[in-house]
């Protein structure tokens, strides 16, 4: 037979199978590893995300792991593995062949008064793009696009993949939520981060944003990375690091990502509050609206 390189045989003879798959680690063990500063393997990260989605991880365990990640960080490989595991917790969207080259999206790291998505998604659609945007809710002190949209009576942010395709066919864009089918693991971790002071974590922000975008079947993505008092990360240095990570992890997942660094020391536009922001977005689409909002929409577009 083919000679085997040395070192690849575990056991051998009648002592049992070679290289038996290691037992998956229990959630407390995974938390302990990260708490003590160890790297988590891809299998560890997948095991944790599986426990989150199948309900076997308790809320306290999810909170503890998020805090361990917030305090100890994750390297690029761990962040990529987490992003992939979150993305693969649901289904990947598939679009008609004819849309190749038209599928684009934008995501913001979040800021006060940031209603750019409400204007930019329809603007891109008007230019012939298809924008299958999976967005988020309020996180920390930053507002959520989904919460803003729900201030419109009757607006439904949960849409099936089939309904999304219909919307893209009819109007060219949609803004929807994570759901049981779409990145469910991000939905759970996102809500947990919001109440455990673990929002401002570079690997968690990166995995949260890119997992949603990885399932969208995009040709290109622009991320608006905010810094300043009205953003998740006050410091420009941290925001730059986040932008770099988003581009690098995105590339690892086969996503073309461009990042813009934008200052957020004051709220964007003149309005803050769900209903008021929707009103301001409508004004902007009508060709009016505050200049800072118009400029940012144009620049990201
Ligand atoms: N937007 C997201 O979707 N996730 C984050 O963690 C921050 C902004």
TrEMBL record:
Region span, Disordered: 1-26
Protein's organism: Loxodonta africana (African elephant)
Protein name per Swiss-Prot or TrEMBL: Thymidine phosphorylase
Gene transcribed to yield this protein: TYMP
Assigned keywords, A-Z: Glycosyltransferase, Transferase
A GO cellular component entry from the record: cytosol
GO molecular function: 1,4-alpha-oligoglucan phosphorylase activity; protein homodimerization activity; thymidine phosphorylase activity
Top-level taxonomy: Eukaryota, Metazoa, Chordata, Craniata, Vertebrata
SUPFAM superfamilies: Nucleoside phosphorylase/phosphoribosyltransferase catalytic domain (SSF52418), Nucleoside phosphorylase/phosphoribosyltransferase N-terminal domain (SSF47648)
UniProt-listed Gene3D superfamilies: Nucleoside phosphorylase/phosphoribosyltransferase catalytic domain, Transferase, Pyrimidine Nucleoside Phosphorylase, Chain C
The keyword Secreted belongs to this UniProt entry's keyword annotation: no
Domain of life from the UniProt record: Eukaryota
Quaternary context: Homodimer.
